[in-house]
Amino acid sequence: MIEVLEVLNDHMVKELKLNYEFGQYTKTPPKYPYWVSDYTEPEPLEEDGLTTPTVTLTGFARGKFLELEEGKQKIKDYFKDGKSVITKSGSAVVIFYAGSLNVPSDEQDLKRCQINLSIKKWSV
Fold this sequence. Notes:
- It is a single chain.
- By secondary structure, the protein is an alpha+beta fold.
- 23% of the residues lie in helices and 41% in strands.
- It contains 2 helices and 7 strands, in the order H-E-E-E-E-H-E-E-E.
- Strands 1, 2, 3, 4, 5, 6 and 7 form a 7-stranded mixed beta sheet that branches.
- Strand 5 and strand 6 form a beta hairpin.
């Protein structure tokens, strides 16, 4: 899964120029909007080395929802047809946009949304 997270980081930070970290955003003070990811990894059932984790991106913004929506649209447009990479180890990773939803927040000023990315990874 580390390879997948490295690929995702490259796409989010280098290509999309978004504030992003895996697990928890650690920059202080935080620069809004920012995105944090987590993942679920089902048991591999394929004999060809295919794994199919799902990455959940959670976006956070203060103030207007529009900044968060702009980031969400940028991510959706970028991953909608899939982005594929061959890693240093020779594994193939493909990332697809798989939907989104707005997440209610108890803090009136804090806006949140969730994006699901479907991953396919073939290990060597």
